[in-house]
Design goal:
By secondary structure, the chain is mainly alpha-helical. Helix content is about 55%, strand content about 5%. The protein has 19 helices and six strands. A four-stranded mixed beta sheet has the order 1-4-6-5, with helices on both faces. The longest helix is centred in the middle third of the chain and has 51 residues, at about 210-260.
Length: about 550
């Protein structure tokens, strides 16, 4: 890459390196954003609780009409983009500038390789200092774009890439828990999200805490307790809604039967006298008796569920009042310690999406970005892939509690890496296993976005099933059946990796009628992760293999309960 390809701003910086470095490293006054930046920040919708409170009434993802904006936002046309990005940051900004300058102008392959490795370290140190600033609504947009997409220098775009990125939708319009890195840090810093699960840290004695640390610790404890109470409240309310719906259905049937029973036809010529009950009406006595028994049973169950709901709501309100008395979760100042802890976790997540032999380069550049527009991991593209997955595997986000399936979409973090694999960080919050969201991570610049999302979803599927089976995960449920198959086949390797690879074949091949799985694996998946009924009927017309599986389904339904 020669000087003619460089952005005019960095070319000027390189011509007078020392003065530029001092300018970047030195503290500077607060930069005033252009009108366009301010407008975009103010228009960012903030839906209180919209992504953190699980809505059990939602059954699928909303279809997205527009995957990008019609007009570009102009963020990357600012000639001071690079300078604004680095100005006012920690000492690592100076180091990033030095190493990036050498990397872009170096022609020796060995030296470029050295500078490329150095960029990785200093770049992450730069992000460490920027992470706590993501709660600042006046933060210049170039800094936010660096955190979100890894874009530090607009000249590293191709023309078509620049246009595409400038049309990306900035806001979370759909209320789904899919977050970019800058949004993730914002939620962590403000206390609306807890830190991602890590190994337990050594607890500091309360006597050694400062007043601010003690207040923060108490607030964290209350938030954890509230998360647990929220799960109980949502579960009990869901059960209450079901029992009320069941009661309404029984009462409607009862009214219809009673109305039919009390409707008598007049006797022709003997008006106003009416006929006795018909044979059909007499048969209604047993039906009405049965409905009354069902209504009585429902009433007992509803009364029990109502008491549980009232107790859960009282506990939830009690903790909520304590949180509000301490200042409220919405106005907690940025917790630097929590952000720093989460930063280390996200750095580890980024490495895991890439793998040991992958491309660790953290900055967006046309040299490594080879995705199509629909293959880039934007929020809208990921939602579309998830919508496709759920159309084939409708139970993918369901967790069973008291025999009731609850659809709970996990938090999804989009990291700007050149990785190819998504993964599940945690299947659910350890303080709330009922309705809490898990956490999965997806790279934004993979070779195949669909495969990257599928690996993450498969990992989630495996971990949820394993946690559900607990100590018996090698014997019961999806994981138990799959483990026994692998043992029978005497396969050597990572069990979960085998499952993920088979799940990808299940979703991409078997769902289209192309048989790629072992017969036993196909049966395990067919029973535990069934396709929708319409797809099953379509598949049974294509092959006797699927027709046989459908017949087994019918036999199981007929023998259910015997």
């Amino acid at each position: 890459m020669n000087d003619s390809e460089l952005d005019p701003e960095i070319a000027a910086l390189l011509s007078n390196a020392q003065s530029s470095i001092e300018e970047v490293a030195a503290p500077s006054p607060k930069i005033t954003m252009s009108k366009g930046f301010i407008k975009q920040t103010e228009e960012e919708p903030r839906r209180p609780g919209s992504i953190h409170e699980v809505d059990l009434s939602r059954t699928c993802f909303q279809k997205i009409e527009n995957l990008k904006n019609e007009t570009p936002n102009g963020f990357y046309d600012d000639p001071k983009y690079y300078k604004v990005t680095l100005t006012g940051e920690n000492a690592s900004a100076q180091r990033v500038h030095q190493v990036l300058s050498k990397y872009l102008t170096c022609t020796d392959p060995k030296d470029r390789s050295v500078y490329r490795q150095q960029i990785v370290t200093c770049y992450w140190e730069l992000l460490r200092g920027m992470a706590p600033k993501m709660t600042d609504l006046s933060l210049p947009m170039p800094k936010r774009m660096l955190m979100r997409y890894g874009i530090i220098l607009p000249s590293l775009f191709k023309a078509e890439h620049k246009e595409f990125f400038s049309k990306m939708i900035f806001e979370n319009k759909y209320g789904e828990p899919i977050l970019y890195v800058d949004e993730w840090f914002k939620e962590i810093a403000s206390g609306r999200m807890t830190n991602s699960a890590t190994d337990e840290k050594k607890q500091v004695r309360a006597a050694n805490l400062t007043p601010d640390q003690a207040a923060s610790a108490e607030q964290s404890r209350l938030m954890q307790l509230q998360s647990k109470n929220s799960g109980k409240l949502q579960s009990s309310e869901n059960m209450l809604n079901m029992k009320e719906s069941e009661r309404a259905m029984i009462e409607t049937e009862l009214r219809n039967r009673v109305d039919t029973l009390c409707d008598h036809l007049p006797i022709m010529g003997l008006e106003p006298h009416k006929n006795a009950m018909t044979e059909t009406q007499r048969k209604l006595f047993s039906e009405i008796t049965d409905l009354l028994h069902r209504l009585s049973k429902n009433d007992k169950e509803l009364a029990k569920v109502l008491r549980e709901f009232q107790e859960s709501k009282a506990s939830y309100d009690s903790v909520q009042n304590k949180i509000e008395a301490n200042g409220g979760a919405e106005i907690i100042q940025a917790d630097k310690e929590s952000v720093n802890t989460e930063f280390e976790t996200i750095r580890q997540m980024a490495k895991m999406t890439i793998g040991r032999r992958g491309n660790q380069f953290p900055i967006f550049t046309r040299e490594f970005y080879h995705c199509t527009e629909n293959g880039t991991g934007t929020r809208e593209n990921v939602i579309e892939v998830l919508r496709w997955i759920e159309s084939i595997d409708p139970g993918v986000f369901h967790r069973i509690h008291k025999n009731v399936p609850n659809r709970i979409v996990p938090y999804i973090l989009l990291v700007p890496t050149y990785g190819d694999r998504g993964f599940c960080w945690e299947p659910f919050d350890r303080y709330n296993r009922v309705t809490s969201r898990g956490r999965i991570v997806i790279p934004m610049y993979p070779r195949d976005l669909k495969i990257a999302v599928l690996t993450a979803v498969a990992d989630l599927r495996w971990q949820v099933a394993k946690e559900k089976a607990s100590y018996y995960w090698m014997e019961e449920g999806l994981t138990g059946q799959y483990y026994q198959h692998v043992e029978q086949m005497k396969l050597k390797g990572d069990l979960k990796e085998f499952f993920i690879e088979d799940y990808i074949l299940w979703m991409t091949k078997e769902s289209t009628g192309v048989q790629r799985l072992d017969k036993d694996v196909r049966g395990i998946f067919w029973r535990n992760m069934p396709f929708p009924k319409e797809l099953k009927e379509d598949l049974r017309k294509r092959s006797l293999v699927y027709d046989e599986l459908c017949k087994k389904d019918a036999n199981r339904e007929m023998s259910d309960g015997y």
